[in-house]
Amino acid sequence: MTYVLGLNAFHADAAACLVKDGALVAAVEEERFRRIKHWGGFPSEAVRYCLAEAGIDLAEVDHVAVNSDDRANRWRKLAYVLTSGVSPSYVLSRLRQRGERADVAGNLARSLPGESFRGTVHAVEHHLCHLASAFLVSPYGKAVAVSVDGFGDFSSAAWGLGEGGSLSVDGRVYFPHSLGVFYEAMTQFIGFPHYGDEYKVMGLAPYGEPRHVEAMKQIVRLEADGTFALDLRYFRHASGEGANYQVKDGIPSGGRLWSDGLVALLGPARDPAAPLEDRHRDIARSAQVTYENAFFNLLEAVHRRYGVDSLVLAGGCAYNSVANGKVLERSPFKRLYVQSAGGDAGGAIGAAFATWHKVGGARAKRHFVMDHAYWGPSATPDQIAAAVAERRTDFDSANCTIERIADEATLCRRTAEAISEGKVIGWFQGRLEWGPRALGNRSILGDPRRADMKDILNLKIKRRESFRPFAPSILREAVPAWFETDDDVPFMMQVFRIREDKRKQIPAVTHVDGTGRLQTVTWAGNPRYARLIEAFNGLTGVPMVLNTSFNENEPVVCKPEEAIDCFLRTRMDVLVLGDTLIAR
């Protein structure tokens, strides 16, 4: 029996996973325990959870795999330092940080006192981890693998071919050229300054017109071989002054990436406190179009190279669900897989599976398929009952009724009825989702038929920008009748066009451009959630519910206590914790 512990450490979205004999046992982001979005550092709580889920201690772990390798691309790094004019003090500070990160065994010892690690530590190059996290858990025996992000181990994109248990890395784009940096710079320029705000640009883009695409061709140059290059006059990251990415007290942040040259090209940047104007919407739309043009230029090239019709994607840019939703129509690929944690957290899985396929011998030829995202902590009925009892006085003060409904069909029918009445539901079930999307176990649910549901959710709970869309969770078999593209989207990683004749029926999940970021739900993948949606369908004739993450400007809730806190401090109408239904 072989255990491999995979880590994304000392970077945003720190995470851990555990692989046992080539099968995933557990995976979770550290932020879910620390309650700080995108928490970075050593994922000690995530490690502790993974070991507990498997019922083992650290001494039983054979291998620890980390999704970063300081030795990768070392000659390119050295050449860049010698020719770029980056200050020696900056280089020394980065080397000191690297030294701290390299001490995996020491961090394990400090995080789990009294336990000992006797195994081997493996440093796995960043983009190999991304590619492995996509292909080695995909349903395909052979596929083209593509990774696109900001930067990791001195490159920003990589591609190769996966077949069986093997995976090649055949091409890269190196620092300082990066589609992730381009998109992040545009995100900052439009006035969204926080780490991870790129999804706001994606949500804002359909409200604008692509008026600046021609100007942005000066910023991102596309090459015939599928690669891309930034015009560094418009960026600051390559000089060191804008590359001061850091994690302080677990909170990741970075310096301003865009230079004053961008102001000369596009006009003044938006102050985050200023209102959004049409010009900002147009810049967002133009940035999205520019990203898509570069993305599909790369996909065309790799398809020509390999002639394989299955594609797997990873890297932070794999969260661009709008672009992902166009892969089947704008590229030659016929099949697409994006696992639920495509970004840096997913690198933990990539590191673990790449190492397993390296050390597992003949057993490693077996191909594990990640067909669901439920790999995190759960709560037992007794734990839920205790959490509810602890807050009984608060529930009484809020005029709540509390009942346990043991029959699943009745529980789902009652919940579906509440949704159909326009109520907002907190839905806490089973194991926590792996990745940023709530997929029916830690979700807030609403009626997709109500045109005012977005406003209700934003007023009662989410308190977020009005332009950001909410997503539909739809029964898999109903997809062809409601969407123009028929495909599996279990992890909510693609945006499809909703059929024109259906859009007026589900205004709460139809974006301004007629699209929806769907999650396909199957009875095999999440039977209770499927039963709930089927019950709603029986009441309304609509085989989907509105789904958004169970949180309020915080990481998705992990424990029942956090779900109860969120319910009580917001104006949520109903909370379903396992078999317990709580209603105001």
Condensed summary:
The protein has 584 residues and is an alpha+beta fold.
Walkthrough of the structure:
It is globular and about 70 Å long. The model has no long low-confidence stretch (mean pLDDT 93). With 584 residues, it is an alpha+beta fold. It is built from 21 helices and 24 strands.
Q: What is the fold's blueprint, element by element?
A:
Blueprint: E1 3-8, E2 15-20, E3 23-29, H1 31-34, H2 44-54, E4 63-66, H3 74-84, H4 88-102, H5 104-111, E5 120-123, H6 126-135, E6 142-152, E7 155-163, E8 166-167, E9 171-174, H7 179-189, H8 198-204, H9 213-216, E10 220-222, E11 228-230, E12 246-248, E13 251-253, H10 260-266, H11 278-306, E14 310-314, H12 321-324, H13 327-330, E15 335-338, H14 347-359, H15 381-390, H16 392-397, E16 401-404, H17 408-420, E17 425-428, E18 442-446, H18 453-462, E19 471-475, H19 479-482, E20 494-497, E21 515-521, H20 527-540, E22 544-549, H21 560-569, E23 574-577, E24 580-583
Parallel strand pairs: 1-4, 4-5, 6-14, 14-15, 17-23, 19-21
Antiparallel strand pairs: 1-2, 2-3, 6-7, 7-8, 7-9, 10-11, 12-13, 16-24, 17-18, 18-22, 19-22, 20-21, 23-24
Number of strands: 24
Mean pLDDT: 93
Distance between the termini: 50 Å
Question: Helix- and strand-based class?
Answer: alpha+beta
Helices, by number, come to 21
Compute the CA-based radius of gyration: 23 Å
Point out poorly predicted stretches.
Answer: none
Strand content: 15-25%
Helix content percent band: 25-40%
> How do the strands line up in the largest sheet?
16-24-23-17-18-22-19-21-20
**Largest sheet descriptor:** 9 strands, mixed
The outline comes out as globular
